[in-house]
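Supplementary Note 2. Why include the ligand at all?

Several targets in our set were suspected to adopt different conformations when bound, so apo predictions alone were not considered sufficient. For every target with a known small-molecule partner we therefore ran a joint prediction. The input for magnesium ion is given below.
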Amino acid sequence: MLASLVHTLPQLVPADGEWISFDVVSLGQNFWSATFDGLTFGAIYALVALGYTLVYGVLNLINFAHSEVFIVGCYGVIFTLTALGFGPSAPNLDIWSIVLNLLLAMLVGMAASALTAFLLERLAYRPLRKKNAPRLVFLITAIGASFVIQYLFYLWRTPNPEPAVIMFKPTPIFDVFGTIIDSQQLVIVIAAVIMMIVVDQFIRRSRTGRGIRAVAQDPDTATLMGVNKERIIVTTFVIGGILAGAAALFYVMKIPSGVQYNGGFVLGIKAFAAAVLGGIGNVRGALLGGLLLGLIGNYGQILLGNSQWTDVVAFVVLVLVLLVRPEGILGTSLARSKA
Amino acid sequence: MKNFFSNLSDKWNSLPRPQQWAFLAIIVVLAFLLPVINPPFITTEPGTNFAITCAQMAVYALVAVGLNIVVGYAGLLDLGYVAFFAVGSYVAAMLTSPDSPFLKIPFLWTVPVAMAVTMFFGVILGVPTLRLRGDYLAIVTLGFGEIIRVLATIIPAMRGQVGFQDVGRPPGVAEDGSPLFANSNGLPWYWLTLVVIIIVLLLVGNLERSRVGRSWIAIREDEDAAEIMGVPVFKYKVWAFALGAAVGGLAGALFAGQIGFVNNQKFDVATSVLFLAAVVLGGAGNKVGAIIGGAVVAYIPLRFTEIAPYKYLIFGLALVLLMIFRTHGLLAARQRLLAYGRAAYARLRKKPVDGPVPTELGGTENKGATA
Amino acid sequence: MSTDSVDEAALAEQGVDLEVAEKAAPDRDYKVQVGDPLIQVQNLTVKFGGLTALDNVSFDIKRGEILGLIGPNGAGKTTCFNAMTGVYKPSSGKVLLEGGSIGGMRRHKITQIGLARTFQNIRLFREMTALENVVVGLDARHRTSVLGALVRSPRHIREEKSSIERGIALLEFVGIADHGETLAKNLPYGYQRRLEIARALATDPKVLCLDEPAAGFNPAEKEELMALIRTIRDDGYTVLLIEHDMKLVMGVTDRIVVLEFGKKIADGLPHEIREDPAVIAAYLGVPEDDIA
Amino acid sequence: MTLLELKNVNVFYGRIQAIRDMSFSVEEGEIVSLIGANGAGKTTTMRTISGLLNPGSGSITFQGEEITKVKAHSRVIRGISQAPEGRGIFPGMTVMENLDMGAFGRSDKSGLAADLERVFDLFPRLKERQKQFGGTMSGGEQQMLAIGRALMSSPKLLLLDEPSMGLAPQFIRQIFNIITEINKQGTTILLVEQNANQALARAHRAFVLETGEITQSGTGKELLANPAIKEAYLGVA
Amino acid sequence: SSGGSSSAGGGSGVNIPAITSVDVPKDAVLPKGDGKATCPSTTTIAFGGAETGANAQLGINIYNGVQLAVNQHNEANPGCQVQFKKFDTEGDPNKATGPVTQMVSDQNILGVVGLAFSGESKATGTIFDDKGLVHITPSATNPELTTKGWKTFFRGLGNDAVQGPAAAKFLTDKLQAKKIYVVQDDSDYGIGLGTSTSGALTGGVLAGTEKVTTGQKDFSAVISKIMNAKADAVFYAGYYAEGAPFDQQLVSKGFTGTFVGPDGVKDDQFIKAAGDASSIAYFTCPCIPGELIPSFQSEYKKLTNAEPGTYSIEGYDAATVLLAGIDAGKQNRADLLSWVKSYDKDGLSKHYKWDDKGELQAPTVYGYKVENGKIVPIGAIGK
Ligand SMILES: Nc1ncnc2c1ncn2[C@@H]1O[C@H](COP(=O)(O)OP(=O)(O)OP(=O)(O)O)[C@@H](O)[C@H]1O
Ligand SMILES: Nc1ncnc2c1ncn2[C@@H]1O[C@H](COP(=O)(O)OP(=O)(O)OP(=O)(O)O)[C@@H](O)[C@H]1O
Ligand SMILES: [Mg+2]
Ligand SMILES: [Mg+2]
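The joint prediction is reproduced in token form.
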């Protein structure tokens, strides 16, 4: 019996060697484009990851519904752009009207996401906090809320993806080693990084930021210092929402037809992984984790020749990093980040 | 509702043992008869066959009991538990399905094999990762779950979405000559799973009321303090993982047999998360609660298939509302961690502090001579 | 073991409550000799970044004594404890228990070979009852395997039964038996402290380390605690005590070690320490009557 | 003038009643001590006054205004500050940041530098360790930090829950001197202490709490002289 | 931008005109029958497939077709009011067992249209077979399904083994593609179709193969490979949910070749989601353009307020087969099963006659393209 088991084992490895074949040539050919695309996605992950990190820092809660906060922002962006007359073909607008329209869409996306985050906090989490619910209960509520939001959109928008909305045709900007970096990639990465820096400075320097950190460490004592805990918590959710709304615009730019009722889930998980990779609760960690995860996934996919590998590679790297640095790359949490 | 449940557990605990057993017997009999009675409002028909619903509820309940060991007792947040369920399913499928190149063994033999293999996976996953704290463990387990699913997709021998058909079944034929454990015959599967649940419950109960259960809870409460009090923290974490995994594998094997088909679609993060919801919904740390939670999570979507588009909306709302109104789960009664705790507490309650020590436990003989 | 070999009358004279002592620690040798060093702390140094919290400290704890460890705030007392119980890794130096080094040993092993402690900030298992908390401590000496627990092996049954006997006895010993069924988190502060002591005792330690056990007690309660600590010693345990309350320290310890800025500045009998000018300067700082 | 007044306050933890029908008042400029055994309800009283716990019934007034329903953080802004039992240090903030947090709810920033100076004078150790994380300070150092932080809010009413806990003898006396000093500078103080001798000696008035009820009250001197109290709380020397 | 421009892009280079009508068999059987049928009021036919889930649109297309057939039948036959029941499987093999068991245990159900997908069909075929309940799938195309020895399974359209080679031929002959990249998803369907298509692409025209995942949204890595290979045509074996963003991203990266998708991609949703990029798309489908049959199109639109979708007409035809049997007095399962087995008549979309395994004897594959934001047929492309 054992012998025949052993005999059949090699069947796990396919004959044509597809199991693991490193397509190094392909990686070489596609290296730079993989890098730039990876960075763009990484920037989007990072913005969403911040929402996880901030809420985690303050409430010690994995806000599983954050992926829905993000997807609502995407709907906001799509609806605005459609209303502004954007459609499946890139419009012929001058740069300023494009920028204006994009800003408007971003504002709406941010508002939609922030409002969702706010409502989520008010309707789902606050009642639990009042009752001193254990942490896991928040997690499950988040999951329930996630279902509710998804299926509201499912019922309203059907299970199909929203029609594509194309904002502008990316124009080549740089040529790096034969690979073209286009305006879209540039806009996304730069804008995301700027936003992250602003948030980072806000948490470190502002009074509210100090309040956030205090609540993160000891909510009761923070209250005794005059910190309005409830307001801090809401603020945190809203900041996370605003960033998710920004991410929504970039996501729609990148994948104009990717908005679907359940479209946030996978991205949400990646963003959460990014947050952990960088060190959950750490603002800079989210940026680093997001960019890294974007890059690793893209390289892995090209190297191993199957998009399935994206996740495997990403998670294997995550596990390896955590084994070496159990608290993520930048370890210290929001609570501990120095001023 | 709140009072109803908390009174219930109070009342329950105040009942004498024989009465508790009698009640339990009634409940068990009712549970066995559930699909036969097929109660009108409760039934999931005509959308889905109720016996099959029951069988699936039972599998989920079993899963929840297993996950409860990991999450409820040891406090290890495992978001990839579905991986063990998957491994169990695949073991059963690959050792019985004609689509598999492996040698074939009778279905019932795959059950212990599945448990052994998943236990092995539990240890493999646990040893490197269980030193991580809290939510870092959560993401690593989530990743593990994804990796198992993706491997099932890309390793050709695992047959991806194509899957394995005609997974084996326990022996036995019905009167009309068809197999007793046909995929469409939920009843025997339900009963089998129920029997398994009862056995697992008894065993888990034994663990709970032993140094093992106490160690788990101590780890959950304060890992450092537990270690300093002499609890081999790492060892018991790995045990929790391995035992939880084994139950998950067991459930997976039964599930594979009942469905008769295994492919990679079921084993995603969303399912993992549902399992977790089952545990928390029931009341983390409470094994009876886990059973109810598992059953509820499996039941709600099947109950509302007639209004198909709304079923997950209802499910989500139910989760949120249940958590808000039953914050500590449906059955929040805490676990009892002492094998002879009832007698001990009774003794503490009755006895004036300085009185002589009664020897009703028979643990030590009365020495009589005190200075 | 049987009680025949013990001179009961003599023990009773010493104030040993035999019944409790036997139940709480049936394997203990009651007739302990104060004398040979049980724990030797040798040149222990602990550094945190640039700060040397413990600087080349050496002292012995002798079998059967109550050793006081005192010193101003931040002197390194808790750090010394943590280094002894494996929470911190010392930068250099070592700790010997009965001649064997415990350096590098896993924390639960250290407990199992006989070093138990309480925490300066209470760390009970909050969702467990008082009795269960104590039984977790008792489990350190138990040997039921997971398999044994699963099938309720005879050893499991035996150990469970003795756990309850000993657990109740320990709760009685520290005086909170009638709160045995209360969840630890719901116990008043003082009872939580007692429970911590009971739980530590449950591991049947050779040395019991108490970190400020009287913090938050009023003087009357402190006196009860002093009595309790004496009883513990009389039951055959060795005790290491960190405490700021001089009355308690002077009243209960057999010997005192004084730390300041991570260094040992004195080591002697209570009355010697009380008059030691270095200690007065560094720590006591005030005339006696002002403290009481 | 009456600064703080509790009327028939009852506080519950779930089904457990921790405070029974408690009424007392604190006059402006006083030091009032609460003493009682472990579990008597002292901390519960403090947390109810600072707003971390909501009374099941009864009312609390501060400066003549009803504050029973006012949120804890707003009470801080009105001038009630608490150094909590167990210290409540922010472990991940530095000593300096912890002190800054003390002034979080403070509206007048004018005296801030002077107050910081005063805290550093009282506890030079804090000045030395400005950059150390609160969580790594020793027990006693944390206690100093907690008191220092409470002082940073320059409150009207300062609630101190066992300020001497964990302090070395030389600091204990200093702490009580500081308390008297702060009081002389105009801050009203409600003090919970196990060190009943000192607490009673320094207090203008004091209450004895037993299982959630006030059983005795009087001036500090009176209670100090009361033999029953001596036996129960001061220990027979 | 170097990808497509060097070679003549199929989309721009070759122009295959749209057809505006298909031949409807003159004596096609229609649901209304002769109007004289009688049957017990309990007589029921059922649909099983995804009503919810990400690929629900296919299921919706089908049951609307079935609903239309039942409505027409009942209107015309006052003496035979057939009931119609829907069972939601979410298209998930693991969820299908319960509903299917329920179907087979409801003795009033005489025949079933479904299940819609290959995976779920595989998981439940035995249950139908055990209980002798005839079912005609209007959309499951995995060839394996007819190799299981089930007596009750019938396929109302050509399988992937037919479509794959047809698609290959379409690509090389009609579209004149020189370098074809085959991308398949991880579904049963995508793998089968992808393999059979790339297998049929002989003579060095296969530029490479690539795999993507169900639920994937970002295809940049795949696309950079395609661009580097300078492919002039891409065949995507999968569903529109991934096909649309894939096509869209392909075009936005400068791809100017042709995009060809199978029946799983051929859906209005594809055009909606891919936007302008869909103009380079062609489709292959073993399905007939129901919208070109005016009677069907207008009735369908009246019922659902939407154009007929992929497989609507297959659902309609399959239901018609069952209804015709009921009308002919085959009012128990065994009779209806043998009725289907020996059926040999035209339906609206094609001739229905099955071999002993349950495959259609003469399936056709149609080609489609996108014109002015609409999917239009370009005629039959396979036998
Ligand atoms: N992890 C750490 N990082 C940096 N400094 C530390 C750390 N732990 C302790 N210290 C410092 O080491 C010194 C000794 O601390 P320790 O806790 O041992 O004091 P202690 O003697 O117990 O004082 P107390 O009586 O106040 O509890 C203190 O100054 C403290 O701030
Ligand atoms: N969270 C809680 N849940 C239930 N009961 C509680 C809780 N906190 C305190 N209690 C109970 O309320 C009573 C009063 O406790 P409190 O902490 O106010 O006492 P205290 O006078 O401050 O005692 P100590 O001197 O020990 O600090 C005690 O019986 C205690 O057990
Ligand atoms: Mg200390
Ligand atoms: Mg207190």
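Residues 1-12 of chain E have pLDDT under 50 and may be disordered. The pocket of magnesium ion (ligand 4) is lined by residues C 189; D 42-43, 85 (CB under 6 Å). Comparable summaries for the other entries are listed in the accompanying table.
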